[in-house]
User: What shape does this take?
Amino acid sequence: MFCLALPMSTLLAQINKPINITPPEPLLVKAGANVEETLNLSVREGFHVNSDKPKDEYIIPIKLTWTGAPLETRQVIYPKPAEIKVGDQQLTVFSGSFPIKTQFHVAEGAAKGTVTVSGKLRYQACNNEMCLRPVTVDIPLTVTIE
Amino acid sequence: MKILKSLVIIAVAALAFLFSCSSSATVGAVRPVKERKPAPDFTLKDASGASVKLSDYRGKVVLLNFWATWCGPCKMEIPWFIEFQQQFKDRGFTVLGVAMDDDGWQSVKPYVAERRVNYRVLLGDDTVSTRYGGVDSLPTTFVIDQEGRIASAHVGLIGKNEYLGEIQTLLGIKQTESARVLPGAADVYAASANQ
Assistant: This one.
């Protein structure tokens, strides 16, 4: 019998995208300036992702990090999460659409030109019946210093 | 909600397809013997560092549960599995937990100790998860018969009674009345989440 051994991981990879991330707008900045970037996310209906400050030590929080000169991350600001109780567990989660804001400082002596700063968003999503394994998504941010 | 249901159906269908390659797509109930496929063998370590091979459990009914400490629905099932282990361990049954935590025993060991898990827990890896179809969603559970064949596969939280029924069927135990009156797990979970 012909058996098409299509891995389930391939199939699930197509459906396991609980978060839609809108690519961040390119930044046009000046050396020495402070600037804020907003990353807009949308969680698929029925799913939630853990907040940045979960109440349970075992829960994996959402975390956005940036690396790369000439931007220095001053603060990453997450919205206020919703609180839900699941079984005997109190969770703080994000669902629907929400922004994560990052406040950057541009280095004083930053050279003019365009660079790409590397962002990484790590999150872990669940619905009422299952959880998806945590993932880390690369988020490139184009920065032009004028 | 329709999208969510579709996702679950697709995932279950994928599991059925992967493990049967037959015209039947039934997953959730114990499959007829002729439709069961061999459970992929593996060797993983338990918390004491001992190697554990799935095929060493040939002759027993094995509930093979992929889980993680960060997985809420998985945590709802664990007390049931503790109960099953206690209830059926002397009747040719065992639970094997395969933890998929990225940080390994650092999270798993204390959790297992806190919850007083009475069955063997192993640390999973990508090789084993690939053999079982990827295991991108947790919990994912396989009920394996005495001949080492997959009798049922479940992606996501199902009811305690469904597991109990499958275990009892494979062990040749008449199903109890109490098994039929417990609420479905997904219903309980959903009700809690909506509070």
Summary: Residues 16-145 of chain A form a domain with the Immunoglobulin-like fold (CATH 2.60.40.1250). Confidence is low (pLDDT under 50) at residues 1-15 of chain A. Chain A touches chain B at residues 1, 3-13, 15-16, 44-47, 58-60, 84-87, 89, 91, 124, 126-134 (CB under 8 Å).
